[in-house]
Design goal:
The complex is a heterodimer of chains A (about 280) and B (about 290). By secondary structure, chain A is mainly α. Chain A is built from 14 helices and no strands. Chain A has two domains: about 10-55, no CATH class; about 65-275, MetI-like (MetI-like fold). Chain B has helices at about 5-35, 55-60, 60-95, 100-110, 115-125, 130-140, 155-180, 185-190, 195-205, 210-225, 230-235, 245-255, 260-285. The chains are: A mainly alpha (about 280), B mainly alpha (about 290).
């Protein structure tokens, strides 16, 4: 916004705002900065802030050795990949149906899909646990992923996008002899690429961070994602060795955090794009 | 394409997503209602129909009532504050402020961190005796205080974590809306001699109404859905002071394995979310200003 700075009062106001913004920024970064300090310094400096304190990577080594984090990383990556792959396929097909086909019950079915925006799998833990038992899937990565694969948010987002594709493109492809699935693949999917990227980033950061359902449904190292592994680790194994716990905490958040720092603009744009629709 | 081919294609494309949605969203919602009228199977005793027994138990359960009031306080304490801060942040990083890039980074970072990791960091922050907060208050000569261990401050301590985590997330939506606003509006107002505050109140805020509604609905859902920090930081204690509804469901369902009572509790949560949905539609009916 371009306002002319005319009077001292306006200058003062602007200065106060800048100070406020920076104070808030400092408060917001403080907990993370504190964790980084503790993780990179020997235990005796975890609460003594001397600039000359020696740096060390020891805490990370000890944390890595104290719990099967490598396995947890693998599990989380498998989980995120599995969910995202299924979401992309299922949501694309469903969104295509809602955007470009006329069939009985379409509005009712769409309303039933949107219901999931309110009643998320996170809330239905008791019944979904029972269902997974009946399917014989408890304590597997598939069981963590299944309730999230058909995502109302994804269907909604892609439907909105597909609706903006000009019908002429669709018809031209059909005249060329494409089947509906070929049209989807050759016309709609390429045009929606930025939305796919946005959705993928939001989905991966959601499921990388998800905790309660994985905590309930998993029970072993082989299926636990990072978040649950971190909780088991810091709650039972370590007592209160904060240097190790903060190191492990940073370790589990590192991939997302680094990705975020590298692709900051992309991240922010993606979250925006997902929110505007 | 013939009409029946359209039908067939529509249904077939929808089928895979519909099956999964039905299995993990619609069926469990209905099954919750069904199981809330039955008893929990124990050992060789099968589940039986018990009418409204579970709901009667719920009405007489002081911990349930406390978790409900806690949750309402939690919502009241976190939602307006995080939305206000989000709006402030968005206005700041949208304007020409010094260090805009860093500020945006600082505000948004908590969003990409897992709540569980965040909770660990804050747990350390709040630690009695040598946690950072204690060191700061101690330096100012204030008496020692166990922030998470005291009934009076534990819930507030969790609220701070939640506001910290969510404000930057909501900021993004406001930022998106602000960037879509025509700069000519501000220019016209400046020429007319409108002050920044007046312009903000009379033009920006009304135009942001749809965003505010969207953020509000998300914030309300999150207030009832996010309990990761409770698991890590307090486990509902001390003395149930931080017991939230979903965490109580988790305890009843997976610590005491009383699935029937947990179903009745879940029904309360579903009812609350249903009310939020209805209110949202009601507001949309009354036409929030859409551009």
């Amino acid at each position: 916004m371009s306002f002319v700075h005319s009077s001292p009062r306006v200058y003062l106001g602007h200065g106060l705002e800048t100070a406020g913004a920076w104070l808030l920024g400092a408060l917001w970064i403080l907990p993370l900065a504190y964790a980084i300090w503790t993780a990179f310094h020997p235990g005796e400096y975890s609460t003594h802030f001397v600039p000359t304190a020696p740096l060390t990577l020891d805490n990370f080594g000890r944390a890595w050795a104290a719990a099967p984090f490598a396995r947890y990383f693998l599990n989380t990556m498998l989980l995120c990949a599995m969910i995202l792959a299924a979401q992309l396929v299922l949501c694309t097909l469903a969104a295509y149906a809602f955007a470009r086909f006329v069939f009985p019950g379409r509005n009712l079915l769409f309303a039933l899909v949107l219901l999931q925006l309110m009643v998320m799998p996170d809330v239905l833990i008791v019944e979904n646990y029972r269902t997974m038992g009946a399917l014989g899937l408890r304590d597997t990565i598939v069981a963590i992923a299944l309730p999230y694969m058909a995502s109302a948010f994804g269907i909604f987002l892609l439907r909105q996008t597909f609706k903006t594709v000009p019908k002429e493109l669709d018809e031209a492809a059909r005249v060329e002899g494409c089947t509906p699935l070929q049209v989807l693949w050759k016309v709609y999917v390429p045009l929606a690429r930025p939305v796919y990227l946005a959705y993928a980033l939001v989905s991966v950061s959601f499921h990388w961070n998800n905790f309660l359902w994985p905590l309930i449904i998993t029970n072993s190292v082989e299926s636990r994602p990072l978040t649950v592994g971190l909780q088991v680790f810091s709650a039972t194994d370590q007592g209160i060795d904060w240097s190790i716990i903060t190191a492990a905490t940073l370790l589990t958040s590192a991939p997302l955090l680094i990705a975020f720092l590298l692709f900051q603009r992309q991240f922010v744009l993606s979250f925006m794009r997902a929110g505007i629709k | 394409m013939t009409r029946s081919a359209q039908w067939l294609y529509g249904w077939l494309l929808l089928l895979p997503a519909a099956v999964l949605l039905a299995l993990f969203t619609h069926y469990p919602a209905v099954a919750t209602l069904w199981h809330s009228f039955r008893s929990t199977p124990r050992g060789s005793r099968a589940s039986t129909f018990v009418g409204v027994d579970n709901y009667a138990q719920l009405v007489d359960d002081p911990i349930f009532w406390q978790s409900l009031t806690n949750n309402l306080w939690f919502a009241i304490g976190t939602i307006p504050l995080s939305i206000t801060l989000a709006l402030l942040m968005a206005v700041w990083v949208n304007g020409r402020i010094a260090g805009r890039g860093f500020l945006r980074l600082a505000y948004f970072t908590p969003t990409v961190l897992p709540m569980i990791a965040v909770a660990n960091i804050w747990l350390f922050f709040y630690t009695p005796e040598y946690g950072l907060l204690e060191q700061i208050t101690g330096a100012f000569g204030m008496p020692a205080h166990n922030w998470l261990g005291s009934k009076n401050s534990a819930l507030a301590a969790l609220m701070v974590v939640t506001v910290w985590k969510e404000a930057g997330f909501f900021m993004i939506f406001y930022l998106a809306a602000l960037q879509q606003m025509s700069p000519q509006l501000a220019e016209a107002a400046a020429i007319e001699g409108a002050s920044r505050a007046y312009f903000f109140r009379r033009v920006t805020l009304p135009l942001l109404m749809p965003t505010t509604l969207f953020v509000l609905v998300n914030a309300v859902i999150n207030a009832f859905r996010l309990v990761d920090h409770v698991v890590v930081m307090t486990r509902g204690g001390p003395d149930n002071a931080t017991e939230l509804l979903l965490y109580y469901i988790y305890e009843i369902g997976f610590r005491f394995w009383d699935s029937a009572y947990a179903a009745a509790l879940t029904m309360v949560l579903l009812l609350l979310l249903g009310v939020v949905a209805l209110l949202q539609f009601w507001f949309l009916e009354r036409k929030v200003h859409y551009q």
